[in-house]
From TrEMBL:
InterPro entries the record matches: 3-OHacyl-CoA_DH, 3-OHacyl-CoA_DH_NAD-bd, 3HC_DH_C, 6-PGluconate_DH-like_C_sf, 6PGD_dom2, NAD(P)-bd_dom_sf
Residues flagged as site, Important for catalytic activity: 138
Organism: Rhizodiscina lignyota
Lineage summary: Eukaryota, Fungi, Dikarya, Ascomycota, Pezizomycotina
Keyword Zinc belongs to the record: no
GO-annotated biological processes: fatty acid metabolic process
Family named by the database record: Belongs to the 3-hydroxyacyl-CoA dehydrogenase family.
3-hydroxyacyl-CoA dehydrogenase NAD binding domain mapped to chain residues: 7-178
UniProt xrefs under Pfam families: 3HCDH, 3HCDH_N
Protein's name in the database: NAD(P)-binding protein
Listed SUPFAM superfamilies: 6-phosphogluconate dehydrogenase C-terminal domain-like, NAD(P)-binding Rossmann-fold domains
GO MF assignments: NAD+ binding; oxidoreductase activity, acting on the CH-OH group of donors, NAD or NADP as acceptor
Length: 283
């Protein structure tokens, strides 16, 4: 059924490029759709770099077609799955998913790569033609991260979940099925708890960021500590994510958010602003 069908990716940014690389591994076509031509060109350059670094390299890479949004209907009509990777704005995601529902064939699976909005939130109140084909398909960065999380809604068909899990495995992902609707999926929930507690530990003056990172790395034998990681992501992004959890769940401590707000107000956003928990000297 899938042999001649493509995967369409909507949004040729950080994730779109990486997913195009993964989904073209078995020689199948990928449609990469973006209204911004520069983004498409830059994505193609990154895909070529990923391919050059791929070990082992597959026998034959699938063709990548770079398409403007006007060609979405054509792209979706020959695809077994469409994944939206547009920016993390709920209203945009809802609009895009409604559009995909309208133009994609009824059996085409429609997935969202959103990090913080569940597919249940995204499709809530939309007029859908076939509600059993929607799911979240959440991948990670950097590109070598094989983990990918698959999460349906109460209406998603188990066959759709099984097919996506199987195809993910075949294409080099390590899929995990999120059994119930969950803000933050599996890994990000664990990571959110680590960040929250790390922020509390520093805010209460129990340890400096450097001490906290050092003990974390020593015990877990991992290259980066929570404060280093938060600096890389950006403290404004860390705050947005934590605000989203706090809006969903009562009883989360406020101090981590207050601490982040103070750092942000002082211009300490992490690597991108030159300082966060650490100083980056413009590097
Ligand atoms: N960056 C990450 O490491 C990461 C990890 C996991 C999940 N995600 C999720 O993936 C999604 C995309 O993130 P990203 O970092 O790749 O974003 P990005 O900003 O790098 O890229 C988004 C792309 O979408 C395009 N776009 C905007 N509107 C569009 C439309 N209507 N149709 C088609 N394309 C459109 C933009 O031109 C841009 O190229 C987000 O939901 C994010 O939460 C990101």
């Amino acid at each position: 059924m899938l042999r001649n069908k493509a995967v369409t990716l909507l949004g040729a940014g950080t994730q779109g490029a990486r997913l195009a690389f993964m989904w073209s591994k078995l020689g199948r076509r990928v449609h990469l759709v973006d209204p911004n031509e520069k983004q498409l060109d830059s994505a193609y350059t990154r895909i070529e770099t990923f391919r050059r670094g791929s070990d082992p390299s597959p026998h034959k890479w699938g063709e990548i077609r770079l398409l403007d949004s006007k060609e979405l209907e054509k792209a979706a009509s020959s695809s077994w799955m469409v994944v939206e990777c547009v920016p993390e704005k709920l209203e945009l995601k809802r609009k895009v998913v409604q559009g995909l529902n309208d133009v994609a064939p009824q059996e085409t699976i429609i997935a969202s790569n959103s990090s913080s909005y569940t597919i249940t939130e995204i499709i809530n109140g939309l007029e859908l033609r076939n509600g059993s084909r929607f799911l979240s398909l959440h991948s990670y960065w950097p590109p070598e991260t094989a983990a990918i999380e698959v999460m349906g809604t109460a209406d998603t068909s188990p066959d759709v979940i099984a097919l996506v899990m199987e195809q993910c495995k075949l294409h080099g992902f390590q899929p995990f099925h999120v059994q119930r609707t969950s803000t933050g999926y599996i890994y990000n929930r664990i990571w959110a708890a680590i960040k929250r507690e790390a922020l509390l530990t520093v805010a209460e003056g129990v340890a400096s960021p450097a001490e906290l990172d050092a003990i974390f790395k020593e015990v877990l034998k991992t290259p980066k500590g929570p404060c280093e990681q938060m600096d890389i992501v950006g403290l404004d992004v860390v705050l947005d994510i934590e605000e989203h959890y706090a809006a969903e769940r009562e009883g989360l401590p406020q101090l981590p958010r207050e601490f982040l707000k103070k750092m942000i107000a002082e211009g300490n956003l992490g690597v991108k602003s030159g300082s966060g928990f650490y100083s980056y000297d413009g590097k």
